[in-house]
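Today's session is about reading a structure prediction critically. Students often jump straight to the picture, but the first step is always the sequence itself: look for stretches that repeat, for charged clusters, for runs of hydrophobic residues. Only then move on to the predicted structure, which in these notes is written as discrete structure tokens rather than atom positions. Here is the chain we will use throughout the hour.
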Amino acid sequence: MSRLTSAAPVVGALLLAALGGGVLTYVIGNDPAPTETTRPSPQPEPLPGWARQALVAKPQDGEQIYAQGISNVAACATCHGAQGMPERGAPYPRLAGLSADYVAKQLDDYANDVRRNEQMRPIARALNGPQRGAVAQYVASLPVPQTQLSVADLDQRGRELDEVGDNARAIPGCGNCHGPRGRGEGVMLPPLAGQPEAYLVSQLNAFRQQRRHNDTVEVMEGIAARLSDADIRALARYFNQLGPARQEARSQP
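Below is the predicted structure for this chain, in token form.
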């Protein structure tokens, strides 16, 4: 056997290895690169109708409705006062100091029977969306009343529930959401200071009895359900006592 013949298997093996490696290299080298998965950009939630109306409305367009009324809608000032402050002892809420978004949502909830009130439902339904937005903007433009930081005769139980809550009954302090001494927090957590006592009692009872359930995550329903009758009266007295200082007191130096 010649050297050439004996070397043939070796040469063949080397050639096969070279060819195989080349094929493997070709296959690996030309494998398409993995592509990154593109995630869609998060889109903002569309504004509810009441928020859009309040956003584009002008306060001056709501002034006539508030002060004088229109067609079959009575003037808001009749119950809520010319400056958004009802008469002392009245069962109507203080509107001065509320945000346009909050008022617009309440009017929309009244109109759609989400917040049930026999007096407000026909009024809210008689106004169209732009009119409700305009009234909300006008209310938000009213001067914010001065409220008292501290009073010697504040209801102590009401103050305790506001500042601390009642841990034994899983009741958080009102100030956690509504701000220190009921000043309000943000645009959707309304001020409680200066709200009439009768109004606060009626609303806390409405939450407790699930006749009012227009807070988005039902926080108030759960809290009010754990309040006793005495607690509700104490809170209503306390926040009413934090009401606006008298005019003559404000004019003093």
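Discussion point for the tutorial: The two ends are 127 Å apart (CA to CA).
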